[in-house]
Design goal:
This protein is mainly α and about 350 residues long. It has one domain. About 50% of the residues lie in helices and about 5% in strands. The protein has 14 helices and 5 strands. A 5-stranded mixed beta sheet has the order 3-1-2-4-5, sandwiched between helices. Strand 1 and strand 2 form a beta hairpin. The chain is globular, with a radius of gyration of 33 Å. The N and C termini lie far apart (about 115 Å).
């Protein structure tokens, strides 16, 4: 009978071997399936854990690595400081930090360089410090008149040094002569009663023969050549206004080791990198607001060249020499081939 035949086969030695092999096969198969299931659930748990680390509306914290470009800039600054300012005192005093704004909540120190989007950077600080909520509604006047932000020189020495050691320190720079032309257009070429009274009247009286009574009274219409001659004849005048003071003298990078030195020419990308480095919420972006004379064409390299073409080669060289350290320290190319 078939059933009897099967029982007899199982009783044979080779039948026992087949049964034993089947047993081990099933054991190995079952073990493999269990291991695969465990591995699958482990991966699922890890994925779920990662999802739980990030709350809605937030981005995961990535390792903060400085771009090579920023590291290279910091190295170049140190090299230029060693070459041109090796004999200076290394002691940090209040005047070294009087252009640095403080934001304590996010631990940020910002050194303002006028004509390098400084009003928009102060808008960022006003929002971060809780003094404003809508960055687009902050007026230009609010960024300089009765500004509620503190500067670093208002703290005692311990407060200054503690913040310098632990806060994210940054500044942004711009081609020096392009920045100078931008300042001239804003403060002297266009209407600006304060600057026309403070600088315009003196410049016209000194450098314009047969100036009209109206020009002498109001200081309107200072030409670029007159402005440049004023700067060349009185080099100390460069330090009398922050809008045409050299960036290295405003922010003192030979005394202060800035974590981030950005460039106006790459403002969109580098402002974003700086804000992420400082841990600022991702929704906050640097605005692109042009406050004064919004109908004017922005001061670009081509616009700058038109103004510089009004100067002879000697004056261009002398003007470059006033800002030479900025050119070297922040790695800007010479604007004219005949400069040395």
């Amino acid at each position: 009978m078939p059933g009897m035949k099967w029982k007899i086969m199982l009783g044979l030695p080779w039948g026992r071997l087949r049964l034993r092999s089947l047993y081990w096969f099933l054991l190995v198969l079952t073990t493999t399936i269990v291991v695969l299931l465990i591995h699958r659930f482990d991966k699922s748990d890890v994925a779920n854990d990662k999802k739980q680390e990030t709350k809605p509306g937030e981005t995961m914290q990535q390792p903060r690595e400085e771009p090579t470009t920023i590291q290279d800039r910091r190295h170049l600054i140190k090299t230029m400081c060693g070459k041109y300012k090796s004999n200076m005192s290394k002691t940090i005093s209040r005047h070294h930090v009087n252009h640095i704004y403080v934001e304590d909540k996010y631990k940020i120190l910002y050194c303002q360089v006028p004509k390098v989007a400084c009003s928009n950077w102060k808008r960022i600080l006003l929002v971060l410090s809780g003094h404003a909520s809508d960055i687009e509604k902050i007026t230009h006047k609010a960024t300089y008149k009765d500004l509620p932000l503190k500067t670093l020189n208002t703290f005692d020495r311990a407060g200054i040094m503690e913040r310098l050691a632990n806060y994210t320190k940054f500044m942004f720079v711009r081609d020096p002569l392009e920045r100078l032309v931008s300042a001239y257009r804003d403060k002297l070429e266009n209407h600006n009663a304060y600057y026309h009274t403070l600088f315009g009247r003196f410049i016209i009286s000194k450098y314009r023969p047969n100036a009209s009574k109206l020009a002498l009274e109001y200081g309107d219409g200072v030409t670029f050549l007159e402005f440049v001659q004023y700067l060349l004849d009185m080099p100390s005048s460069v330090s009398k206004d922050i809008h045409w003071e050299a960036a290295n003298r405003l922010c003192n990078p030979c005394h202060i080791d800035y974590d981030f030195v950005g460039k106006f020419e790459n403002m969109s990308e580098e402002s974003e990198a700086l804000l992420r480095l400082a841990g600022v919420p991702p929704y906050l972006k640097l605005p692109n607001l042009k406050d004064r004379n919004p109908s004017d064409k922005k001061t670009t390299l081509s616009v700058t060249q038109k103004y510089m073409a009004q100067l002879d080669s000697l004056k261009r060289q002398q003007l470059y020499d006033l800002y030479k350290l900025d050119y070297l320290m922040f790695n800007y190319s010479k604007p004219f081939p005949d400069l040395y």
